[in-house]
Amino acid sequence: MFETASLSSSPPANSFFPKNKIRVLLLENIHANAVNSFKREDFQVESLKEALSEEELKEKIKGVHVLGIRSKTKVTKAVLNEANRLLCIGCFCIGTDQVDLDAAETLGIPVFNSPFSNTRSVAELILAEIISLSRRLPDKIREMHSGTWDKSAKNCHEIRGKTLGIVGYGHIGSQLSVMAEAMGMKVLFFDIISKLSLGNARSCDGLESLLRESDFVTLHVPKTAQTHNMITEKEIAMMKKGSYLLNASRGTVVQISALAAALKSEHLAGAAIDVYPSEPEGNINDWKCELQGLSNVIMTPHIGGSTEEAQLAIGVEVADKLIKLVNTGNTLTAVNFPAIDLPFTNEGTHRILNIHKNVPGVLKGINSLLAENNVVAQILSTHKSIGYIILDIEKETSQSLKKEMSALPASLKTRILS
Predict the structure, then answer these.
(1) Do 158 and 240 have their domain in common?
(2) Which is deepest, 68, 132, 140, 231, by most CB within 10 Å?
(3) Is 302 part of the annotated catalytic residue set?
(4) Is 279 annotated in the active site?
(5) What predicted TM-score, i.e. pTM, was given to this entire model?
């Protein structure tokens, strides 16, 4: 059963679960502004710099109401089964594949992320890498550090007039499109969803045509079964000889062995890779990859969105979503949950939040209870296996209704806000 929580920063005397009892666990050095946002709500906040292993998190998560993570922490079904108080999870990053979303949904735990806040940071990194690869800066920098002075224009080019192929024309891809065109590049894009092109960018009918026409190919797709090994030896062979491949999306999208072979054979003139099929959970000094030591290759440790500006924006956005969930039940941007909100404007009411299994007959049971009460406002929605209802009810009957809703066979969690 959900514990109860108050809406106000200073809970009234009849508050059932004061906000200063809400426990927040933040992992992986989440930005200080997020920490401060939770503290301003009078929540108990514990912030750790590192990720935790599954066994460590299984123990640490007991009694935690709000969990905040970045990309390294894995929130598995086994971890969620130990989360006896968990109200919500915030992924302070774009992706959510580090969380077992289905298990979280089944347990009535909404998951939030920040899909747009680091858009500019990633787009700028890709544009910088396109210029760096075209000028062979990785090789020039390495040579200078080793004492070699080799002033030569051979195989160094401007990006003006070159063709950039963007695979995945979402928020990052479309913003990169505008920036690249401003630099004088021609832009092609391919997306499985029909997208409005910006500027003079042109949509391609398929991936193959984009690969064959582009001087630079950059990937901005999610991790799905469809994008797993999207770029293999076959796709690389379709690319122009002397072209470049960049990936700042997901490590499972590119087959690294095929990329390494294409670089060694000089079919590709260079590459920039920020994500990898296997990434360490923390900073290490002996990480290995087939791309190491190859000519004109930029390798970065998953830092596409790692700027102070992006982390600040992510901290603000995700913390705000989690606080709204705790305070009002708002789930509008949850990735695995019914997306609903009800303006909290009714005086003299308590708010009841009920999460229940989405099974036949559940609404009959809920409606039979509501018929006996004066409901001031309500909203309900379903998502896959669960349903979620927010309702405002007169204070005099709120406690009894909460108890009755909690007792329904399909109920998973019920929480009351005063």
Answers:
(1) yes
(2) 68
(3) yes
(4) yes
(5) 0.83
